Amino acid sequence: MREPKKTKSRIWLGSYPTAEMAARAHDVAALAFRGKLACLNFADSAWRLPVPASMDAMDIRRAAAEAAEGFRPVEFGGVSRSSSDEKERMMVQVEEKKKRVV
Q1: Neighbours of 20 (CB within 10 A)
Q2: Beta bridge partners of residue 10, listed in sequence order
Q3: At what angle do helices 19-34 and 57-69 cross, to 10 degrees?
Q4: Which residues pair with 48 in a beta bridge?
Q5: DSSP-assigned beta bridge partners for residue 2
Q6: What is the CA radius of gyration of the chain?
C-alpha cells in the first residue's frame, strides 16, 4: 500500500493464502492512512478490524496481519468460529510454541 504524501514509499502488508485475508489487511492500512475517507473492501465490518498502535509502518503491518489472521479459513489452518474447544486447543499450542522458543 502506498503511503500518502510519500512519492515512492510503500508498506508491504504481506502475502496471504486467500483474497479475503489480503483484502482485510488492506482495509486496516487504508483506515490507518485515510480514516473515514478510506475505500474499503468490507466496509460493513470495519469495526472488527484492529487499529494500529501508531502510524509507523511496522505497527500498520502488525495490525494488518492480525486482521488477516482473524479471517483465516479452516482449510488454511484457521480455527472454526463455532468450536470453542478447537479454539482453546489452538491457543494452548501457540503458548507451547512460545515457551519452546524462549
Answers
A1: 15
A2: 2
A3: 140
A4: none
A5: 10
A6: 15
Q: Domain limits of the chain?
A: 19-101
Residue among 12, 23, 102 at smallest CA distance from 62 = 12
Q: One digit per residue, pLDDT tens: the chain, 102 residues?
A: 666 666 667 888 999 999 999 999 999 999 999 999 999 999 998 999 999 999 999 999 999 999 999 988 888 887 665 555 566 666 777 777 777 765
pLDDT value, residue 18: 94
Tell me the DSSP string of the chain. -BPTT-TT-B------SSHHHHHHHHHHHHHHHHGGG---S-GGGGGGS---SSSSHHHHHHHHHHHHHTT--GGGTPPPTT-HHHHHHHHHHHHHHHHHH-
Q: Which residue has the cell 505497527?
A: 59
What torsion do the CA atoms of 40, 41, 44, 48 make, to the nearest 10 degrees? -80
